[in-house]
Write a structure and sequence with these properties.
The complex is a heterodimer of chains A (351) and B (343). Chain A starts with a helix and ends with a helix. In chain A, helix 4 crosses helix 15, helix 10 packs antiparallel against helix 11 and helix 14 packs antiparallel against helix 15. In chain A, the strands form two sheets. In chain A, strands 2, 3, 4, 5, 6 and 7 form a six-stranded antiparallel sheet that branches. Chain A has a two-stranded antiparallel sheet with strand order 1-8. Chain A is α+β, with helices and mostly antiparallel strands. Chain A is built from 15 helices and eight strands. Chain A folds into three domains: 46 residues; 57 residues, SH3 type barrels; 214 residues, MetI-like (MetI-like fold). Chain B is mostly helical and 343 residues long. Chain B has a domain of 228 residues: MetI-like (MetI-like fold, Orthogonal Bundle). Helix content of chain B is 72%, strand content 0%. In chain B, helix 6 packs antiparallel against helix 12, helix 8 runs parallel beside helix 13 and helix 12 runs antiparallel to helix 15. The two termini of chain B are 14 Å apart. Classes of the chains: A alpha+beta (351), B mainly alpha (343). Chains A and B meet through helix 1, helix 2, helix 5, helix 6 and helix 7 of A and helix 1, helix 2, helix 3, helix 4 and helix 6 of B.
Chain lengths: 351, 343
């Protein structure tokens, strides 16, 4: 016990002087936080800027927008400027119109008074304002909701199919002894070595021949049977007690019942890991949907976003907001399941 | 792989659990209804043949979308013309490969007939060398730092890991926004008195950022593998070293790095395999440009087979057979490394 205390004390470093490597480590971590979080934070902040604020250089850190006021007698809202008047006083005036280098200004408090000032004598009055229209407008103007629906549909259905057929195969390979088991296991390993990137063209042919071209099923089906999933589930099922299955057989349970009512509930933790992997794969999938989906109405979010970045070169305010919306679900999942995901990936070495 | 079950044990959040249960409910019902036909099937074919029934769906998918395509890919690569259906394509032997490999000098892509393919090969090779080096270096440093006795380790681990989950399109757009002409980085450069740099107009800068962004996005994954390796090193080795007052540098070079070496090999080979298939981030970030400065092999395959005006399936298939062979060799390396790790 005393030895333990001693070790603990040493380890937690109450008496231990701070080594230079500790300081270097914290410096490295601080830099890491800036470098890893910074870009995403910048994206989110920028996505709330108005189109004109995005064109500013150098950019301001927070989303600012010029204040606009309603002035009695003026049909539209007028932009507010901090104006230096000829007598040297500074007042906040609204601009009615601008003619060449002169601007016609009006005092919002006293609309009867009008001023003419040189445009370099005034500065826009700006406050922090979040341009939420960046988020609401694309929903109406583009097929964003359609893409979102497509992505959710693909992710959900594909994950269900993957969980079902992978677990069935894993069950066969883990529970039974049968001729050809070795060959089947080898075939799974072999499939592990064939990434989609090298069979794009022939899979496209198969999908076309099945009449699935330009449908969401063309995205869902080819990747549904994952060797990774079969492996992960098989490893887990191998640890289940065999007596349980024997007992069920005694009770005249069918093999299907053993699979669905006994083995599957016990495999839930591994199924959850595979579900998270599958959701991640499907939500982020890019090359295959890009190759096989050519009609806008079947685009997934990622393909839609990529198409937008080609079309909306000058409309970064929409593009940034849509990027944030694509990122948000993943970020939420990560916040809740962070520990679970990292241990899952760290110990299986897969992603 | 053997420690998967213990690793899978931590439970997901309550909310996720409840959600999963609701989602599973109709599936559960459907699969319970499947029992009578399955029971009948079991009676007809016998229990001994049931495993084949369970294997069937998954292997039907494998057959249709993996094994069959491998065969067709080879057929495609030895036939010509523009038809998609294999029987309508004339046999051309090794012509597609001869065309791909028709080069004045293999060191100069411009001397090749299919110069884009060779630029892709050259760019991918360059990309992989830089990316794997940087990836191994930074994920090693990060894993070592995260393995130290620091406060908030879980938080910092999450910080380095979260970009792994972002989609390549999102990653590329985040950085495109920062690196654009009037972006954050150029603002920083001009504030410090420099000149704006057009990162995506200069070939070397474009390649640099392609590598940088890819390391940024995937580093967390490799860090996790190395971290798992570091945590598997027996603690008593370190305690013994501490007793002997061994300097930290010697602990690192004599204990940590040698024992981490098997994991390092896994990381290197995995990074090589993924690196050779690089496409999405770079494609969205630079579009392969400027010119063909960041055009990768996979982008060449995609564009030849799908995106160009005249779709040349044969050439795309031939190129993917070449890429497939390279990946095959790399995967053999991976298995060799994994076996060494077990011993």
């Amino acid at each position: 016990m005393r030895l333990g205390n001693l070790m603990g004390q040493r380890r937690n470093g109450a008496g231990r002087p701070l080594h230079w490597t500790d300081i270097a480590a914290y410096a490295y971590l601080a830099l890491g936080v800036v470098l890893m979080f910074g870009p995403v934070l910048w994206l989110v902040l920028s996505s709330f800027k108005t189109q004109s604020a995005l064109l500013e250089f150098p950019p301001s850190p927070l989303p600012f927008a010029q204040v606009e006021v309603t002035v009695p007698g003026q049909p539209q809202k007028l932009p507010l400027f901090r104006t230096t008047l000829p007598d040297g006083s500074v007042r906040e005036l609204a601009q009615v119109r601008r003619v060449g280098l002169l601007a016609q200004m009006v005092d919002p408090a006293d609309p009867s008074k009008q001023y003419r000032v040189a445009i370099d004598k005034r500065e826009p009055v700006r406050r922090v304002a979040f341009a939420t229209e960046n988020y609401t407008e694309p929903l109406q103007r583009f097929a964003f909701m359609r893409f979102l629906f497509n992505s959710v549909f693909v992710t959900f259905v594909a994950t269900l199919i993957t969980l079902l057929i992978n677990s069935m195969a894993a069950y066969a390979l883990a529970i039974y002894v049968f001729p050809g088991k070795q060959a089947a296991t080898l075939a799974v390993i072999g499939t592990l070595m064939i990434p989609m990137t090298i069979i794009l063209v022939p899979v496209y042919l198969v999908v076309t021949e099945l009449g699935l071209a330009n449908s969401l099923w063309a995205v869902i089906l080819p990747g549904a049977a994952t060797p990774t999933g079969v492996f992960l589930l098989r490893q887990y099922m191998l640890t289940l007690p065999k007596d349980l299955i024997e007992a069920a057989r005694m009770d005249k349970a069918s093999e299907w019942q053993i699979y669905w009512r006994i083995v599957m509930p016990l495999t839930l933790p591994a199924l959850a890991v595979l579900a998270i992997f599958s959701i991640m794969w499907r939500w982020n999938e890019f090359l295959w949907p890009l190759a096989v989906l050519t009609k806008t109405e079947v685009y997934t979010l990622q393909i839609g976003l990529n198409a937008f970045q080609g079309e909306l070169q000058t409309q970064w305010h929409y593009l940034l907001a849509m990027t944030v919306m694509t990122l948000a679900p993943v970020a939420l999942v990560f916040v809740f399941l962070q520990r679970f995901i990292t241990t899952g990936i760290g110990s299986t070495g897969m992603k | 792989m053997s420690d998967t079950p213990s690793a899978a044990r931590p439970q997901p959040g309550m909310a996720a659990g409840a959600l999963a249960r609701v989602a599973v409910l109709p599936v559960d019902l459907a699969l319970r209804l499947l029992d009578p036909p399955m029971r009948w099937l079991q009676r007809v074919i016998g229990v001994r043949r049931m495993p084949y029934v369970f294997l069937l769906p998954n292997f039907a998918f494998f057959g249709l979308f993996v094994f069959l395509p491998i065969g067709i890919n080879i057929v495609f690569s030895v036939t010509g013309g523009s038809a998609l259906f294999p029987s309508e394509r004339p046999y051309v032997g090794a012509n597609q490969f001869a065309y791909l490999f028709d080069c004045g000098s293999f060191l100069d892509p411009a001397s090749c007939r299919e110069d884009h393919f060779w630029r892709g090969v050259a760019n991918t090779a360059k990309f992989v060398v830089f990316q794997v080096t940087a990836m191994v270096l930074f994920s090693l440093i990060t894993a070592l730092v995260l393995n130290m006795k620091i406060r908030g380790r879980g938080f910092f681990r999450a910080v380095y890991f979260f970009p792994v989950l972002l989609s390549p399109v999102v990653v590329a757009l985040i950085w495109k926004w920062i690196l654009q002409r009037d972006g954050l980085l150029n603002a920083a450069i001009t504030t410090l008195g420099g000149q704006k740099i057009l990162f995506f107009v200069d070939p070397s800068w474009a390649m640099f950022w392609a590598v940088f962004v890819s390391v940024w996005a995937h580093m967390g994954f490799y860090t996790l593998i190395l971290l798992a390796g570091l945590q598997a090193i027996p603690a008593d080795l370190y305690e013994a070293a501490e007793m002997d007052a061994t300097p930290r540098w010697r602990v690192l070079t004599r204990i940590t790095l040698p024992l981490l070496w098997p994991n390092m090999i896994v990381v290197i080979v995995l990074a090589l395999i993924k690196g050779a298939q690089t496409f999405d981030e770079v494609f969205v970030l630079t579009g392969g440009g400027p010119g063909t400065a960041t055009l990768m092999v996979v982008q060449y395959i995609y564009e030849t087979g799908f995106a160009s005006q005249v779709q040349n399936f044969g050439l795309a298939a031939a190129a993917s057979v070449v890429l497939g062979l390279v990946l095959f060799v790399l995967t053999l390396l991976q298995f060799a490394a994994a076996r060494r790790k077990e011993i």
